[in-house]
Amino acid sequence: MEFDSSNPAQGIHKWIGLSIGTGRSSIIGVTYNGTYDLVQADVNEATNAGCPEGSFVLWLKCDEVINTPKIITISRAGYTTETITINVIDSEN
Length: 93
Hints:
Elements: E1 3-4, E2 12-13, E3 15-21, E4 31-32, E5 36-37, H1 40-48, E6 55-61, H2 62-65, E7 70-75, E8 82-86
Antiparallel strand pairs: 1-2, 3-6, 4-5, 4-7, 7-8
């Protein structure tokens, strides 16, 4: 089902919400894709979505990731940067 993002600039899409675990007890101080530092609002969103502690919600636009790998990085000072590849395969094609 398509719905509007909480950020109107992102438009109306079908969304996939993934819980991404960081391996840490808190996501505060974790950097997503080298440019976005996770903050308390991200903790609150993850908690509201039922994600375990140390995880954040990654929202993906379905039409942008089907059959196109999504590669993200998560990092934190003093720890190794991790790269994650997400594959969503259209089984009908």
